[in-house]
Every structure is written in C-alpha cells, then in structure tokens.
Amino acid sequence: MSDDGIDLRCAGCAAVGLDSNVCPACGRELGYRFVALPSHDPSPRGPCAGCGSDRYNAEGRCVECCRPQARRDRWEADLGTVAAITDRGLVHERNEDAVAAAVVDGATSGAPAATVIAVSDGVSTSTQPQVASGAAVRAGVHATVTALAGGQAPTEAIMTGLAAAAQAVRDVDVADGPAPSCTYVCAIVPHAAETTEITIANVGDSRAYWLRADSADGAWNAPSQRLSADDSWAQALVDAGAMDERAAMNDPRAHTLIRWLGADSPPRPWADNCVRTIRTVGPGVLLLCSDGLWNYLPAPAALAGPATAGTPLAAARGLVEFALRSGGGDNITVAVASVPRCADR
After folding, report:
1. List of domains in the chain
2. Please, what is the angle between helix 300-307 and helix 312-325, to 10°?
C-alpha cells in the first residue's frame, strides 16, 4: 500500500506495488509515470549562502553558522504530455497548493492510456492546509488510475478518485484547530484515436479549462471554455442571477467556499453536477490551476494564447510568470496537458 493508503496493483501478477512505478513481486513496471508536487524533499539545496558549508542539521540550519537553509519557492515536473508547476508566490510564507499527475501507458498498466491530473489548494484558515492538499492530489490520482485499470468508465473512475481524495483529507491527523481542508479539481485525458473526451470533477474553486489556439478551427474542436464551476459565494451569486461574474468577483465574500474537502465537510462534499465532459478532436490544451493564476487571468479567451504557446512546460512557466508579474498574491499552481489533433496521434 502506498503512503497515501491507495493500493497500486500490478497488472501482471495482481500484487500490490510499494510505489507508483515498479511491482515489488514480479519487477514489472506498473505502467504509469507519477509525480506529486511540492515534493518537500528534505535534502539540502546547495551550499549555505552564509558560509558555504553543505552540512545542515535536522532543523534545516547550517551546522557551521546556523543560517537557515534556503527556502525553495518553486517545483516543476515535465512528463511530456503534461507539465506541472507549483510556486509559493510573492506574499504567502509557504506553499499550500499541491499538484499530482500520472501518464498511463495502456500497454503495461492494464488501464486505458491516459493522462490523469489533480490540483488542490489548501484552505489557509484551516490547520495544516498544505498536508490536506498534498494528501488529496496523491490519493485522488492514484485511485483514479486504479479505477480505470479496474474497468471503470472515466466518469465513474474520477468519482472514485474524488472519494479517495476526500477520505485522505479526513484522515489527516491534527491535535486541534480547524479541520485541514482544501479544494480539488481532477481531469482524465484519454489518449484516444478518433476523438478525445476529457472528464473533469471539482470541489471548491480550483479550475479546469479547455483552451485552443485561435487558428485551431474545426467543427469538432470545442471552443476555449471553462469546464469547472466554482463552489464559491461568487458563483452562487451568478447562478442565482443576483450579479454578473465581474461584479460577483468584486464582492468581499467572492472566494468564500460553499463546498470543500475536509473532516468538517459532508460525507459527500461535492455537487451533483461536479462531473463534466467535453469531446474534441484537438488540438488544444487542458489547463488545471489554482486561483493564484485565475485571479489574474480568469477568461478562457485570455488564457488560450499563453496556454497554447510552445510545449506544456513552456506554457506552464509562462502562466506562472504572468501571475508573479501580476502580484503573486497567492500560491500559484498550473498543470498543462497537451491534446494533439486526433489525426496526429
């Protein structure tokens, strides 16, 4: 069992894997590459800026001059079809966001070939929000891949992953204080031959977008659009017809969540319509992000240009840099998955 509490079963011998890559029983690759950020790697990041020593104690301070180890502000990962970045931003003392992604090789995993991604934003007013967000994305992605390998349809598998993410957050142990909580958005992008049907699910206000370049015409290539609906006070005002989106986002209660993952949330903390699908032939990209990005660039038409410029990693870096230049007032997390024209696969 993984440290997330999720069984990762080998498609070859049905043994349970100790990690996301190799079966400990038969040595077979489990068929998907997995990454979760931030990694919170405790190893020193280069020599001490004060004295040049490379020796640190358990508290992360230089053993020679007691200077604290340099703080890491950004984590990046590139899995080819998807790139993910999470950045502390310029204002917050720590990064409470998290992102995880898996690229599934259908030939060896027992699951359909697909990219699975999850982004989570810890609720700052809760206890250990960074632990909640990390637990959610790891459990959610692993459980979604396992469900796909077990034959569940994407709309069912993504809900299996959402339920696992919710339970993982409930299981975060804290002595006291407000229950750890976070948002969650997940997506499945199958590597299909004729059409691509993207499936997303969300709780809270981390978002999913389908974005295409202006030149990517075609009747079957869906236009740029937001795929998720925020579980927020602002969205509730818009849905009720009380305000338009621009006015609602200026309300001081705009980012107040009405649904979230946490021990203090209902057993089923998601809306009945939290799962959505979109069918396209591409080309374009799927973007998952926390509000550290979309606060500054919420419109799909505005996101489409930078999100479709270059490789997924180049696009993700460009979007994060835009948020930093715009103020960096929150943690920034971005995952960009490429969806090529289906005929090009």
Report:
1. 8-42+78-344 (3.60.40.10)
2. 130
